[in-house]
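#struct-pred
JK: can someone run the complex with adenosine-5'-diphosphate? inputs below
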Amino acid sequence: MKLRETIIEKLLLACSLLTIFTTVGIIGVLIFETIGFFKEVSLIEFLTDTEWTPLFSNKRFGILPLLTGTLLTTFIATIVAVPLGLTIAVYLSEYSHKTVRNLVKPMLEILAAVPTVVYGYFALVFVTPMFQKIIPTLSGFNALSPGIVMGIMILPLVSSLSEDALYAVPKSLREGSFALGATKFQTSWKVIVPSAFSGISVSIILAISRAIGETMIVAIAAGQQPRLTLDPTVPIETMTTYIVQVSLGDVPHDSVEYRTIFAVGMTLFVVTLILNNISFWLKKKFQKHHR
Amino acid sequence: MKIEAKNVHVYYGSDHVLKGVTLSIKKNTVTALIGPSGCGKSTFLRCFNRMNDLIENARVEGEIMIEGVDIYHPKINVNELRKTVGMVFQKPNPFPKSIFENVAYGLRVNGVKDQALIDEKVESSLRGAALWDEVKDKLKKSALALSGGQQQRLCIARALAVEPSVLLMDEPASALDPISSIKIEELIYSLKANYTILIVTHNMQQASRTSDKTAFFYMGDLVEYDDTRTLFTNPKKERTQNYITGRFG
Ligand SMILES: Nc1ncnc2c1ncn2[C@@H]1O[C@H](COP(=O)(O)OP(=O)(O)O)[C@@H](O)[C@H]1O
Ligand SMILES: [Mg+2]
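RT: done, structure tokens with the ligand placed:
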């Protein structure tokens, strides 16, 4: 019995160590290759050049076009997912009957389980042509459609986690608000939503991180043209798309072109890390607030 | 305001927890509701601002008239009713907002936009709840940083801000230390001039010190209702006698 316990314990330890080593390994390779990249390209050029053309003969290494591409699609996804997701969350937590909630919540979560390649083609062959009827200048590849479709994909992250946060707000606060003559609408938006602020922002940040890292939808429907623009109707390229493009291409492995994907990957990693820290900080701040 | 309850029954699902309560309350008096745990005091109190509407399986029968108006009439606007009939809960439940915003909340949800008026009402309500001097320099601070006793007085101020005529208090001092509890009692005494107050309490001394009338409940029945002094010195029912002398409950 004792021996079995020990074996199980050691096995569990091995598993956790394996995860840690893998993470450290990935970050190690990322850092190593990124350093290699910055031996050939200056950090200043990387951060300030407005063009990204590593695969052309006139090589330029400005991350800005890829960064804005990612931020643009993510922003569009966010303005779709947050208002909609929060409204759904408030409806489910404050208005709907329990049976409706228990039915709708898992159904929404299915949205997150749809393979992203399906979303990608949905954006390309359905959403873009539909929008082209309204905006004739909309190009076949653009930031708008994949942004919106990505918003639908991350919607359940916002609605489901926000709903959990709203649902956890003590009943006594609802009663306190109703007792002052507040309506259900006022109670929901002026007391319950602010009270669940930390949980809601964590859900939003998680959804944004997911959108930033999303690859397939933007690779299929946003185009592969790095372009420094905030215009959602023209083709762009995101950081993730670029990484896929180079990884699948026939760029020689020991070249600066190849190492660009590590520099881009590192940028992606840093952006996500910052978001994670904000979410961590919000959580902590809120816990202190509530003792 | 004059309050009249006629033959009030309350059911939670099939549980019959208030069994025909009739009593009438004069304007600007304090009425204490006493009785052992689970006898229906809170349930009865929550009939007067229709808080029981929020409980899914609760059903109220009978009639409650406030200043001659049947508050269960289908045409009654419940939000308006709750502005007239304020409530303070057993556990302080300030909103996670600033002290100022807690008090201003009731005004804002009732459509008051005039900032000067809001400032004025917040101050007068905090003064009314004997909290102004302690918080006047930190109105922008979170209400959650206040002590339990201060939070409860804040909740009273919050209720006063919408200018109710009736105040319902469900064991408002039971979660507080003795000193805060005395403060709340003094406060109730001072509020009597302007409000009709119903207070649920477990504390016999508190009931006898603060109230004009006392109603003793037992298992969903109103056993005895009389002037507080009479009820405590010369109860007519044996059950009341046993309860106030501490033989049960
Ligand atoms: N929301 C509810 N659902 C079902 N039963 C309840 C609910 N609230 C109270 N009760 C029951 O109703 C009875 C009276 O409760 P309550 O009015 O809270 O008593 P008191 O305030 O005198 O302690 C108790 O038996 C209690 O268990
Ligand atoms: Mg009670």
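RT: quick notes.
Chain A touches chain B at residues 170, 172-183, 186, 190-191, 194-195, 289-291 (CB under 8 Å).
Chain A is about 75% helix and 0% strand.
JK: thanks, will look after standup
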